[in-house]
Amino acid sequence: MRLQFLGANRQVTGSRYLLDAGGLRIVIDCGLFQERRVLERNWEPPPFDPDTIDYLLLTHAHLDHTGLVPRLVHSGLNASIICTEPTARLAEIVMLDSAKIQQEDAKYKQKRHRKEGRRGPRPIVPLYTTEDAQKAVSLLKAVGYGKRIELGDHVAATFYEAGHILGSAIVVLEVSENGEARRIVFSGDLGQWDKPLIGDPTLLEQADYVIMESTYGDRTHRDGPDPQTQLADVINRTAKRGGNVVIPTFAIERAQELIYHIGRLVHKDRIVDLPIFLDSPMAVDVTQVFRDLRGYLDEQARQLFEQGTPPLRYPGLKLVRSVDESKAINTVRGPCIIMSASGMCTAGRIKHHLRANISRPDSTILFVGYQAGGTLGRLILDGRPELRIHGRQYTVRADIDQIHGFSAHGDRDDLLRWLGHFKKPPRQVFLTHGEEDAATTLAKAVKSELEIDTIVPHYKQSVDLE
Ligand code: ZN
What we know:
- This protein folds into 2 domains: 2-219 and 408-464, Ribonuclease Z/Hydroxyacylglutathione hydrolase-like (Metallo-beta-lactamase, Chain A); 227-402, Rossmann fold.
- Helix content is 31%, strand content 22%.
- The protein has helices at 63-66, 69-74, 85-116, 130-138, 227-241, 254-267, 281-292, 299-306, 323-328, 350-357, 376-381, 412-419, 436-450, and strands at 2-5, 16-21, 24-30, 55-57, 80-84, 140-143, 149-150, 155-161, 169-177, 180-186, 209-213, 245-248, 276-279, 317-320, 337-340, 364-367, 386-389, 392-395, 399-402, 428-432, 454-455, 462-464.
- Helix 3 packs antiparallel against helix 4 (130-138), helix 3 packs antiparallel against helix 7 and helix 5 packs across helix 6.
- The termini are close together.
- The mean pLDDT is 95.
- The structure holds zinc ion (ZN).
- Zinc ion (ZN) is lined by residues 60, 62, 65, 164, 189.
């Protein structure tokens, strides 16, 4: 058995593993590299012959776990892509959206180069096209949680709830080689316990090898008033001034979580009556998947459906798809809540809403997610007095606010709780999907608290599993 680490090593994007075991070649996740210093890897030929791959397994639909699948299909992958049902639905949305962005980026670059009379070292083509993404979608095969599927005579796979986003899974591979059985557990991204809508991460008891994420391996999520109460405060405060609450949000999970929390506030009369817009076609599509596949939501959310108070549908909430409807939001009189993507304000409709609100002292720009360095979201959060949006200069007069506690990832204590649940310590634990500091700090904690040795692998490192 041989395991090779092909992404998300000492950083958090481009998750990808190659496992040669039980006579099969299996790829686990195939994500887009999104950090500037590793972007070039997206363009390199795949580090294995796609033709030789028997299966591709996906832990969940996030772009950093699925975003290179169409590229791999373009390079010749023709294998079943196995994942849970919600992941299949969400991965379709994510891959098609990404293809569109890749094509638009290429077109924009071509235009710019033509204008500047520049000629790059290679022709400008999209990383992949809608056609590649559609082919990838046609290879998706959905399985239920907890259902053991035979991939071959010597390998079986089971997907368990990971509590990260809808459909997210921990993948357990059971391999028999030379009469010996081994369990290899890929954590995927692990969520927090007791989050709304999504079930808790599954605690497992047996593993020989564990590959675990470490995104927040060096932190604990901040305690404080619960996010719902903080949200109520911001909304009521802003509405009293007559302004709007503008919330940049990620289309998957965060948007639905916000809708859920605001819905609870509406039902409990904890906020004033006001229109609530989700203005992002992608987030609207994802919300529809949540509604369609409510059987995958956690018990509390399913109960709300049964009680006739569906958590993602309530008075005042409007899901906005068309450009005209989106523009019409700016003509709404009186306070309203506007949730829109992208989550870091780097593109999309959120920029229009920022233009309309950022110079209004009565409005609030509310951040509920991570803002990477250099993004417009980060500049706003850092308190820049003046900003450029769509080529125009704006003075920041709106209230800038932030609510912590919305993370889809478990923190250090959650990760240790999950890893500490195995009855017998695994033979080896590998920590991936974390910045160098987060992964190595967690490695020390695992050693001191659980007495397990860990490896923080490097990109392309491969290990023999015995
Ligand atoms: Zn994720």
